[in-house]
């Protein structure tokens, strides 16, 4: 009789020990899901607050950007850059180069030095350079000055 009780106790302990990790994983998974939902909700609130603060619509920002660079708009996003609310508009030109232009979300004006194109941007990111990428006109002026 005593042996049966011991075996039953061991089996109960084994079942409990094996089931506990599954319960813990399920609980942690549930907590992660709740955390992700809360994070998404916070991001949505942040985006809503940014949108409310913007005086310039996404359509106006895209028009301003495409007046400067001809091509196909692939993305437009409202964000804070250096403490300033701007529309970041990404355009792929007919030549295949990617340009990022920044339009002030308060005034609708292009942010000076905000245009970055394909290879120039990649080079800047690799260097970790904090200064803005030069525009084509800046590069032409530099070349003219070097040739004198």
Write the layout of secondary structure elements.
Elements: H1 2-53, H2 58-68, E1 72-81, E2 84-92, E3 98-104, E4 116-117, H3 118-127, H4 136-147
Antiparallel strand pairs: 1-2, 2-3, 3-4
- Counted up, domains total 2
Q: What gross morphology would you assign?
A: elongated
Pairing-aware structural class of the strands and helices?
alpha+beta
Sheet with the most strands: spatial strand order = 1-2-3-4
Task: Supply the number of helical segments.
Answer: 4
Order of helices and strands: HHEEEEHH
Radius of gyration, in angstroms, nearest whole number: 28 Å
Task: Describe the overall structure.
The chain has helices at residues 2-53, 58-68, 118-127, 136-147; strands at 72-81, 84-92, 98-104, 116-117. The longest helix is centred in the N-terminal third of the chain and has 52 residues, at 2-53. It is of the alpha+beta class and 148 residues long. A four-stranded antiparallel β-sheet has the order 1-2-3-4. A hairpin with a 2-residue loop joins strand 1 and strand 2. Mean pLDDT is 77; it is low at 129-148. The chain starts with a helix and ends with a helix. It has two domains: 1-53; 58-134, Nuclear Transport Factor 2, Chain: A.
């Amino acid at each position: 009789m005593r042996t049966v009780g011991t075996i039953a106790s061991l089996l109960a302990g084994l079942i409990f020990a094996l089931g506990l990790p599954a319960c813990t994983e399920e609980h942690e998974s549930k907590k992660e899901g709740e955390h992700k939902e809360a994070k998404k909700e916070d991001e949505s609130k942040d985006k809503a607050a940014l949108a409310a603060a913007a005086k310039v619509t996404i359509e106006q920002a895209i028009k301003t950007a495409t007046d400067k660079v001809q091509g196909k708009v692939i993305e437009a996003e409202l964000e804070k850059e250096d403490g300033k609310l701007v529309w970041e508009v990404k355009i792929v030109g007919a030549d295949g180069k990617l340009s990022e232009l920044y339009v002030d979300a308060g005034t609708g004006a292009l942010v000076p030095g905000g245009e970055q194109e394909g290879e120039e941007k990649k080079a800047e990111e690799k260097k970790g350079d904090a200064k803005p990428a030069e525009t084509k006109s800046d590069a032409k002026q530099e070349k003219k000055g070097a040739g004198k």
